[in-house]
Specification:
six-stranded mixed beta sheet; about 150 residues; elongated; Immunoglobulin-like; single chain; alpha+beta; 2 helices
């Protein structure tokens, strides 16, 4: 009879421990499902090598997982010529299918940079690309280059 009570208690303890373990796994699975996917930004420039006074199209394709992000809090393009301290910042509106677009031409030839500052769904992403208008100029040293948004505390 003692052996039966001991075995019963051990069996009951085993059930309780396994139930707690399953609950922890369920809680972790639920937490994993609740983590949002990162907001991704694909920045494209068409054409990558443009000509002076001809339009260049900049597009930031914003997605989260498989979903197009059409409700970004803010999309801003920061554009400057290499080694120039003046950075132009342009707010961009949603065009279609998660794409935020700007068309712009440049009078001065040289190497340029663009950063798309995208704030959406409590996340921030800021890819940077280089492009050339006409003949390229001396590029910036990536170790010294700072976009002006960083200097403003963003």
């Amino acid at each position: 009879m003692k052996k039966f009570k001991i075995l019963s208690l051990l069996f009951l303890a085993l059930l309780i421990v396994s139930a707690c373990g399953n609950k922890e796994n369920q809680d972790q699975d639920q937490a994993d499902k609740e983590l949002p996917e990162f907001v991704e930004v694909k920045l494209t420039i068409t054409p990558e090598h443009g000509q002076a006074n001809e339009p260049i199209i900049f597009e930031a394709k914003v997605t989260q997982g498989e979903e197009n992000v059409e409700d970004a809090d803010e999309v801003k393009f920061e554009i400057w010529r290499a080694k120039d301290e003046n950075h132009e910042k342009v707010k961009v509106q949603h065009a279609e299918d998660g794409i935020y677009r700007l068309e712009k031409s440049f009078a001065q030839e040289g190497t340029y940079y663009i950063i798309s500052h995208v704030t959406a769904r409590d996340m921030h992403n800021m890819p940077k690309e280089e492009f050339v208008i006409g003949t390229d100029s001396e590029p910036e040293d990536p170790n010294e280059s700072k976009d002006s948004m960083d200097m403003e505390g963003h």
